[in-house]
Design brief:
CATH class of the largest domain: Alpha Beta
Largest sheet: 8 strands, mixed
CATH architecture of the largest domain: 3-Layer(aba) Sandwich
Strand content: 15-25%
Strand order of the largest sheet: 3-4-6-5-7-10-8-9
CATH superfamily of the largest domain: Zn peptidases
Bound molecules: zinc ion
Number of strands: 19
Number of helices: 14
Number of domains: 2
Length: 499
């Protein structure tokens, strides 16, 4: 039988009017414990900034705040720290963004990949919070050590990490936030104000699982300031993200959508592919649909992240045991396997979407034949090749589906335009909510570009610099012969661009 402790109500009994008394006792216990073990608590820069409470190593909001400020002060080249809002009791919700800030883009000029990570929805799940902390810490340390993997990631990626979403619950050692004014669940007969379960408060089939009791989803979707701040950030800062990891603990499992339904998600092949990779090469951690791997759960940040934002999303349930030792190295050792999985997910961020690359294009009168290669590990439907003038679509191919990691050729007719440019328009993943992208095609990078009849196309290609004037006559002759114009080796051509 599976040990299921994360999302059950193991702490409901403590979240009542004895909460404050319990909190005072814990504070006393922290002070006593700190005095007793003080000689062994080496306050070095690398320590997990935690203190022992009930066999947990408890990281207070203040300790985290101090450490984040130190990280930011010491590493302005890669760390940006900001507050994205306040908890119910007014504590700041700290957002850490890690990237190589000497460049706004990747070295090749493309936009950096975006990854979103949060921890600490549940205030008593310290190992979940610890894994978010450790992930940030690992990239900061390894960047400073010149580790090539960390350098590559930070040059090409922005890591947005919110380590502690529920600082009030964290400091009170309770699952919920400390909004005790609202009936936790308006649908149960005798609502008791126990604080709200933030990971039931998102606007995705809110409170729509049965039974809803004993969970405490709040008075309505996004009734809590913590979840509102988190969703606002997703919608305003990381809407381009291709990975969202939300960190919990209590069970050792990774959960992908859905929690609401037992069905596999539309992008099942992406999730299953990741499972194969992780289980084959990194860790035996079980990876399942959340509804089946845990139990039905609604209004979670995971289902919101996938169902509303369209991110590939995992809930990382870090461990089935909260106990942990004192230093960064020990946290690292304890959570090393989980960190390895995180590094794999981060290193391969490029692949967690459909990523269409046009390989070849040939135009024969009004007929366009093209080959498109999906480099990503997600499929896409409703993709089109378009010919546009500014944002006006002059022509588009028939809709096509492109399966993950595969290539296909298509022909569409009705093309009789010039003066425009080509782009691919498609959704990054199959789920309806996934982002649409319009990606302009650099015709000079095509493996093959052929046109059999249209002089105007050649002139257009010359005008945009894809074909130098010196090659025009040759290309025109070649196109009349209906032979492919190989412009793959564009190193010479680029040097001869007209402008
Ligand atoms: Zn949890």
């Amino acid at each position: 039988m599976q040990k299921i402790t994360d999302d059950v109500t193991k702490n409901n009994s403590q979240i009542d009017d004895r909460l404050f008394a319990g909190y005072v006792m814990r504070v006393v216990a922290i002070i006593l414990a700190t005095l007793i073990v003080a000689p062994t608590l080496v306050v070095a820069e690398q320590n997990w900034p935690g203190e022992p409470v009930d066999n947990h190593i408890f990281m207070s909001y203040l300790a985290l705040t101090q450490e984040l400020k130190d990280w930011s002060d010491d590493n302005p080249d890669i760390v940006e720290l900001s507050s994205i809002g306040k908890s119910y009791l007014g504590r700041e919700l700290w957002m850490l963004v890690l990237s190589d800030w000497s460049n706004e883009t990747k070295i090749n000029g493309d936009a950096k990949e975006i990854i979103y990570i949060d921890g600490g929805h549940h205030g008593n799940e310290y190992l979940g919070t610890a894994l978010a902390w450790l992930t940030a810490k690992w990239y900061i340390n390894e960047w400073n050590a010149g580790n090539q993997e960390a350098v590559d990631v930070l040059q090409n990626t922005e890591l947005h990490i919110l380590i502690m979403l529920n600082p009030d619950g964290n400091d009170a050692d309770t699952r919920h936030n400390l909004n005790l004014t609202t009936a936790a669940n308006p649908l149960v007969s005798e609502p008791v104000p126990t604080g709200i379960d933030l990971n039931r408060n998102y606007d995705h089939f809110w409170d729509d699982c049965s039974p809803s009791d004993p969970f405490a989803p709040g008075s309505g979707p996004f009734s809590e300031p913590e979840t509102r701040a988190n969703a606002d950030y997703m919608n305003s800062h990381v809407q381009d993200a291709d990975l969202y990891i939300t960190m919990h603990t209590g069970v050792w499992i990774m959960l992908y959508p859905w929690g609401k339904w037992p069905d596999q998600p539309s992008d099942w092949e992406l999730f299953h592919g990741i499972r194969e990779d992780v289980n084959g090469n990194i860790s035996d951690i079980p990876i399942q649909n959340a509804n089946q791997g845990l139990y039905p759960n609604c209004g979670t940040s995971r289902d919101y992240g996938y169902g509303v934002m369209g991110f590939p999303t995992f809930t990382f349930e870090t461990d089935d045991d909260q106990f942990l030792l004192f230093t960064f190295e020990d946290v690292n050792e304890r959570l090393g396997e989980e960190l390895d999985v995180m590094r794999y997910l981060i290193n391969n961020i490029y692949y967690w979407r459909a990523r269409l690359v046009l390989e070849s294009l040939s135009i024969d009168d009004d007929e366009v034949t093209f080959t498109v290669n999906n480099m990503g590990r997600a499929s896409t439907r409703n993709a089109t090749l378009q010919y546009i003038d500014n944002d006006k679509v002059l022509w588009e191919s028939e809709n096509f589906t492109s399966n993950a990691s595969s290539s296909k050729s298509l022909t569409s007719n009705g093309f009789e335009f010039d003066g425009g440019e080509w782009r691919l328009s498609y959704q990054k993943r199959v789920v309806h909510s996934s982002q649409w992208v319009n990606e302009t095609i650099d015709i000079a990078k095509l493996k093959s570009y052929t046109t059999s009849s249209s002089l105007t196309n050649l002139i257009w290609a010359m005008q945009v610099g894809a074909i130098p004037l010196s090659a025009l006559a040759f290309a025109f002759w070649w196109s009349r012969e209906e032979k492919p114009l190989e412009i793959l080796d564009n190193s010479i051509l680029e040097a001869e661009l007209l402008d």
